[in-house]
Amino acid sequence: MNRMILLRIIGACIAVMLLLYAALGFYGDLTRSNFRASDLFLGEFPPEKVNVAASGVLAPFTFDGDLLANYAAAKAADFLHHPAADATSRATENKAAQDAVVAALKVSPIRPALWLTLGTLKAQSGELVTPAVKMSYLAGAVPIAVAFARLQTVTSSAAAADEEIKLLAQSDVRSALANRSRYEQLLTAAYLQATPQGKSLLLEATQGTDPKFNQILRRY
Questions:
Q1: Neighbour tally for 195: CB within 10 Å
Q2: Taking the mean position of all CA atoms in its chain, how far away is CA 169?
Q3: Is residue 132's pLDDT more than 80?
Q4: Alpha helical stretches, state H, 125-195
Q5: Of 148, 155, 146, 83, whose CA–CA distance to 117 is shortest?
Q6: What is d(CA 207, CA 101) in angstroms, rounded to the nearest whole number?
Q7: CA 70, chain centre distance (Å)
Q8: For site-directed labelling of 30, which of 84, 130, 186, 198 has its Cα 20 to 30 A away?
Q9: Span 1-48, pLDDT tens digits
Q10: Alpha carbon separation from 97 to 21, 31, 40, 52, 68 (Å, rounded)
Q11: What pLDDT was estimated at residue 191?
Q12: Average pLDDT over residues 89-96
């Protein structure tokens, strides 16, 4: 008799857990953000704050890589588009966005645009961006707009001094030069805003790929 009661209790607990899991999944589908990390670099505007907060309710309890990644991207975009007025609040919001991105990457690390998002957030707070940017290269291919945003991050930070990143960044330069009519002025602007190491990287990368454009950069 005691064994039957125990089995019933166990069965009831399992049923409750399954019901709770289904309810959380249903809520997640309703509140899931469609904003992806690549959208941050494609000029898309993030969801409203209330929608970001709603999609973040499940973040501590789920292992859904897409849900976590989209929530992290929306949270990062919200911070980058609407930073707080005072430095203390900005630092707190940046840390919260970084934590959301790191949590998503722990579950689903093969997300190059999300790694770049982490690097972008670190750049905003003056932290070292090199490891995150390097992972964005190693995690896979990205759209050209994301590649150009990554190149801007590299050339304007200490990442441009890393020998491995200097090699990896050449692919971003080639992608931009393959669409030279669209990116020539943007590459020139990136060169003007680059660190000395970033300028050197761009000159070295364009020397063999597009000598004519290389000569244009050398005029500045």
A1: 16
A2: 17
A3: yes
A4: 130-138, 144-155, 163-178, 180-193
A5: 146
A6: 36
A7: 10
A8: 84
A9: 566 776 667 766 776 666 655 545 544 454 556 788 899 898 777 766
A10: 26, 18, 13, 11, 12
A11: 95
A12: 94
Give the C-alpha separation, 138 to 107, whole Å.
Answer: 17
Other residues' Cβ atoms within 10 Å of the Cβ of residue 15: 10
Q: Of 14-28, 57-71, 72-86, 130-144, which one has max mean pLDDT?
A: 130-144
- Residue 81 Cα distances to 106, 130, 140, angstroms: 25, 23, 26
CA distances from 2 to 6, 8, 9, 12, 14 (A): 6, 10, 11, 15, 18
Counting other chains too, the contacts that 122-125 makes at CB distance below 8 Å and 24 or more residues apart are 122/98, 123/153, 123/156, 123/157, 124/80, 124/94, 125/91, 125/94, 125/95
Residue-level pLDDT at 8 = 67
Q: CA 127, CA 122: separation in Å to the nearest integer? A: 5
Predicted local distance difference test score (pLDDT) of residue 158: 92
Q: Which of 113, 85, 93 is nearest to 49 (CA)?
A: 93
* pLDDT at residue 187 greater than cutoff 70: yes
pTM of structure: 0.81
φ and ψ at 48, to 5 degrees? -65, 155
**Please, are residues 52 and 75 in contact by the beta-carbon 8 Å criterion?**
yes
* Mean pLDDT computed over 169-191: 92
Torsion of CA 114, 119, 121, 127, to 10 degrees: 150
